Fold these 2 entries.
Entry 1:
Amino acid sequence: MIKAPFTFQIEAQAGRARAGRFQTPHGELLTPVFAPVGTQASVKAITPDQLTELNASLILANTYHLYLRPGDELIADQGGLHQFMHWPGPILTDSGGFQVFSLAKKRRIDQDGVTFRSHIDGSEHRLDPEKAIKIQENLGADIIMAFDECAEPDDKTYAQQAMNRTHRWAERCLLAKSRADQALFGIVQGGIFADLRRESAEFISSLDFPGIAIGGLSIGETKGEMHDVIELVDQILPVHKPRYLMGVGTPQDLVNGVMRGIDLFDCVLPTRLARHNAAMTRHGGRLNLVNAQYAKDPQPIDSSCQCYTCLNFSRAYLRHLIVAKEMLSATLLSIHNLFTLIKLMTDIRHAVMSEKFDEFAAEYFEHPAGENQDHA
Amino acid sequence: MIKAPFTFQIEAQAGRARAGRFQTPHGELLTPVFAPVGTQASVKAITPDQLTELNASLILANTYHLYLRPGDELIADQGGLHQFMHWPGPILTDSGGFQVFSLAKKRRIDQDGVTFRSHIDGSEHRLDPEKAIKIQENLGADIIMAFDECAEPDDKTYAQQAMNRTHRWAERCLLAKSRADQALFGIVQGGIFADLRRESAEFISSLDFPGIAIGGLSIGETKGEMHDVIELVDQILPVHKPRYLMGVGTPQDLVNGVMRGIDLFDCVLPTRLARHNAAMTRHGGRLNLVNAQYAKDPQPIDSSCQCYTCLNFSRAYLRHLIVAKEMLSATLLSIHNLFTLIKLMTDIRHAVMSEKFDEFAAEYFEHPAGENQDHA
């Protein structure tokens, strides 16, 4: 069972979909929940007050980035991540594993950990399970992640080696953990290979983690492969623990993930698209607002959307900001994109609670994606 | 006298300093007032809601920029500048004159106007008094400016020619103006030359402008020369009209300006400094927050400041954002810098109203500038 202060209570179920409440030291999360990403202790172009207005509850920060800059010890000296970035609600930090494998240079993996060079200044560093936990304890997030190795999706030999290391490292992370006010989640790996995913889900489920993540998805596999992995893992994971699908976050991915039992999501997509001038639609379409077709368009991005941006600004104004290279465009588009995903999750939760999730999902997938049909 | 809806009422005086109320179609301005600059219909890195929280009342937008991009006719079609940028309060637009002389390329001045090439795409354009008024009527600001020519500060022959053209253009602007819901201000020019400034102040005062600006300052002259010009002009301008000192805005400039009879100010300084990592102090000092000395500094920029930034974020966090190139640093520093100037103006007004402005000013100038003593 999950120990206090991290109780997880499932309030309603609809098929595999769940609506729950996950208690953390910085407040309760109503699940399913989408976490905006604040890689460097800032959700890009957005103030914490604006995040609160968006009804954001959980945010994610990246261990790899904060370890390198400004340093986890500096953040600990400043009172921890909540105080440093002035976010009063729950925070989740990843383990740094994924970034070491995707961003760092000249990495050398051994059975004990990874040696790599910083993508910022080339300096040499080492991460291992104990170090990843120590850093995350310094950062002080509510939810922290076991150090894992994320393999390429299509090399089974490597996927198996990476999974085996991830399992040994998961045990070491549990041993290394010392703070009682942080929930350490284990991570299921195994690429797109059913036998590996099954083995990994069973092994991680056997350990004393209060929550379990599915890692290594949305990195090149097809949507069908992603769904197969989630369905397979979902049937093995203990029902009473929250499940977190890492780094996944198109609108369709969220609905598909909840349908397959997922409770927590995070993704850079809404804020990254905003900085590339794209507004997300609820159904997975995108408006590329730099396009000339919007130059004189007096409508908001979405006339049914209740976000600050849609209530107050036209497509013509947003396009002007983009063309004139005004920073405000990133802020206003980030607000819209985050609001869209957070509102979608609220509606999903409401549908599960009111026993209407099947209709909700059917209607959702029948709906056209929206302007430009530019699916993720 | 000033016609409705633009009544200007002086509520209190202290020496030359005045506290007043200037009525506009989009609300009343309590003067003296400082206007943040939204060059391209956006106060950089700040939302309109954040401006409201800062107690901003008047904002300035630039005719030259908006004429070139997105175009004044487009903004008129979108309902005007207030609706386009979602600013419900008073807006002031300049005439485009200053930017033509400081930003545009290959400009050719004749008696009727200026031909120039866009700094954006090199396209050829022409501004003259009638065009400048037409553009500003399309933009729809509450306060609009006569088309003027701003001369270099130290060439008397040119200063006189520019002043003479400015006077002829002022008359033409008055004739060209057609909207009753905009207050057209005349502009006094004449460089640093007392006889020219006297002639210009007398001439512009003789015309039927509801407010008068002093242009051509803060462009290379000394502070002493600036003060001499303001004092000289102040004694000529009609008492019952608001006076606007264009483009001037260090904290000391504001106090010095009010002492010499100025009611309105605008300046890009607070937002521009913010984007260059500098926090302003109330007394004219600056903190360059990229400096390593702030890396572990848990204090806010100014522990006595009540802005959102100072109430919630440390120097260490702000420095981290700067070093990590997070856009949030520009937002948070702009909030602090704008708050500092707007609060200073509120305090100045209060001092004038409560007959304590002399003590206020004496105390203000005795106070050290603050961190780094890096005066503007």
Note: Chain B has a mean pLDDT of 95.
Entry 2:
Amino acid sequence: MQARIGELALLLGGELIGDSGVEVSRIGTLESAAPDTIAFLANPRYQSQLAASRAGCVIVGPAMREAAAARGAAIVCADPYLAHARLTQWWVARERGARAAGGIHPSAVVEAGALVDPAAAVGALAFVGRGARIEAGAVIGAQAHVGAGAYVGERTRLEPRAVLGEGCRIGARGIVHSGAVIGADGFGFADNQGEWVKIEQLGAVRIGDDVEIGANTCIDRGALDDTVIEDGVKLDNLVQIGHNVHVGAHSAFAGCVGVAGSAKIGRHCTAGGGAIILGHLELADHVHITAATVVTHSIRRPGQYSGLFPIDDNASWEKNAATLKQLHSLRERLRALEKKAS
Amino acid sequence: MQARIGELALLLGGELIGDSGVEVSRIGTLESAAPDTIAFLANPRYQSQLAASRAGCVIVGPAMREAAAARGAAIVCADPYLAHARLTQWWVARERGARAAGGIHPSAVVEAGALVDPAAAVGALAFVGRGARIEAGAVIGAQAHVGAGAYVGERTRLEPRAVLGEGCRIGARGIVHSGAVIGADGFGFADNQGEWVKIEQLGAVRIGDDVEIGANTCIDRGALDDTVIEDGVKLDNLVQIGHNVHVGAHSAFAGCVGVAGSAKIGRHCTAGGGAIILGHLELADHVHITAATVVTHSIRRPGQYSGLFPIDDNASWEKNAATLKQLHSLRERLRALEKKAS
Amino acid sequence: MQARIGELALLLGGELIGDSGVEVSRIGTLESAAPDTIAFLANPRYQSQLAASRAGCVIVGPAMREAAAARGAAIVCADPYLAHARLTQWWVARERGARAAGGIHPSAVVEAGALVDPAAAVGALAFVGRGARIEAGAVIGAQAHVGAGAYVGERTRLEPRAVLGEGCRIGARGIVHSGAVIGADGFGFADNQGEWVKIEQLGAVRIGDDVEIGANTCIDRGALDDTVIEDGVKLDNLVQIGHNVHVGAHSAFAGCVGVAGSAKIGRHCTAGGGAIILGHLELADHVHITAATVVTHSIRRPGQYSGLFPIDDNASWEKNAATLKQLHSLRERLRALEKKAS
């Protein structure tokens, strides 16, 4: 694929510096760039790479305008990182468009009563259950699974081997990565004298528009009402969302995050990798949880919250961790000393 | 589906208050209930929802008898949560029964020498290897995988895209959710001057009756002997069980728990989400591990065990975490002061 | 399968004690061994099991030579654990060889333009995309997925239902376990006034030779350049490797480890189960991270590093954890006392 940088400047709404006819055929980093590459500089930390880069064109912010112009062609944008994001989308859409193949692969199994829009694609060895509905432009990847009565909105893609369970819904322009399981049973049991009696999970999963769900991530169906993921939510890989969780719009969780049942997460929240959010609690909007932190109670005020044990060389850690077990008694001893000294 | 509440009271062994001919067509929460809904109240915390609920019938405990009767039809049971669990099971069994389709889907691949009971079902695009045996009433979901020589007990369900590896066994009435992998190789290597030499994993996985295994959960095969999961164990999603682990009957692990190789877990144990249990150790029966806690040594006495860093606003956490690295020396300074003061 | 212990002694380069014609048909533990079993003793901790074992032959180190000879046949090797590893490999290779079935299963979908070596095998219901290349001796398991343009090196095995994404490469003699997803999109978004704008992930994943990747483990494709896993790396189950991570040769991560984007891990590093390594940092060669530890900054020196909260009975933990929130102020109070006392 090739593109003229004049065309790209128009696309990105940026100011073009240099010859609009210069062609690029690749998006790359400043460091690995060749003359056929368009690169971007967003983080001032990497400014030193700018002058040395062999990129055919660079996307920069206004502050870097002079430095970029000094080395060659550039597109100056208010937010170069956002411009880069949009460029990658445009690039990939053009590539995909060139090889799009609609229709249902002959090896796929589409049960009677499923509705697949003629402008949708169902890949090899995929399964679409009775009563499911696949909207226009949606792509069901090879070996993916759409359960009975499930719904896939316009232009949403299920990557190879993703699972959207029975009766679950995902809106438009979503992406479900390989191995993700939407709609497995929530973890619900009643204790009967030490034995667990299963509570059948009768709810479903309802996912809004523009949601991305990572590889091997799990979102459980609700016990009675639905589990809900609002518009614009982004979940990384290997995330666990328990039954009846509600994730507010535009929240994003990094890899390996776990959210227990019935937690209610606000809008625009984030959680770093490996964070655990316990169940039956609420996070306000704009709450940010540091990686590997455990949320044990509701958080009512926006802000950053943390709780992870600092890493240290093993010997130092051992000494401090051992002392930690006496912390409460150390406090008592300190108090006693204070009394004595007063 | 419809059911008369008189029939349900008999089923649940409860006392019926109200007209036995009232029909319900849905199980729901008190809050979202309509007149066609049967709901339950188990947790006194939600008692305030009882009077306001529009449910056609409510399941309550003896203590709520009067309050429930004051608003309409009710079924009074000794343990309303357990009654609710049983109701959901009966409900789902009736629904499933109505649409059960036995037999082997024509797109499934069943190798020669596999034994599939005529009363079992093998879904679309599923695979059953040579020498495997599927008992009566078992359901192998679409795109699921049963390896050569594996065994699936009566009425056990493998959900779509679950994997039961070569030679592994699961007993009766189990559920294996989508994406679960039973019988991948354990993580075993010998160090040969800095390079890892694979130890082939020659054991299998043996799973008892009434076991439920969550979506994308992994249970590794044993190195020499088998990995064993006893009857009634419940594992949530994204749980990792290493080779030669032994999980005692009726233990339950929440999402994202990891158990390292050769750990021996007792009966009736639980672990909260994200807990890590190291290898080559033992937990007694009735040991309960708090979420996100790391078990580093054997625990011989029943009880609740914890070890997670408390969450705090980020600024406070930073100060305390930094001080934590000096905790041992703080203790020494305190000791010195105590000597001086004595 | 049967083997004479004389043959095995030659294979392992060990000294044979006893009758070379003794036949064994199984590799087992000392404890569960029968006369048809060959077992090994590597850890002196299990020495007491030696005399009692019914094994037909035991593999031991030089220090155990006399004790082993006293009970029967033995093979004495410099490193009995390594010898055991090699024995298991030889054993499994012979078993597999006996039932190897090359070729493409008729139910598999191999797109036009894919190159499958005649000495490779593609299992039932597997998918191989256009332009992919599968080398001699490679095995693509049932229901596995090889994306367009992907590359699978000689004798590498994708287990059932593994995914190797579009354009991703794995070298020779690798193993990718069931459910692993190589090449899902990295987690990259630009913030546009509170909404996340996707950055298409244009890199791939490049994996060296002799790499093993665990069940349901995820390795994301790079944003622009590739994510790289060097030769001999071993990843356990449910591991998350973010985009543009670089893992140096012969490093090994236990289950549930998460590595965030652009982390650069040295050679011969290890991480225990559940460890989290944050992004944009570097670990030197020979850095070992304890289980459940969070790496928040670069580590430049080899060694063992730890940071996990010690487990305790719940009541003690609660007291210490509560006090932990006052740790910084305790230090201030101690300082004040010290001043007063000096």
Note: Chain B touches chain A through 69 residues (CB under 8 Å).
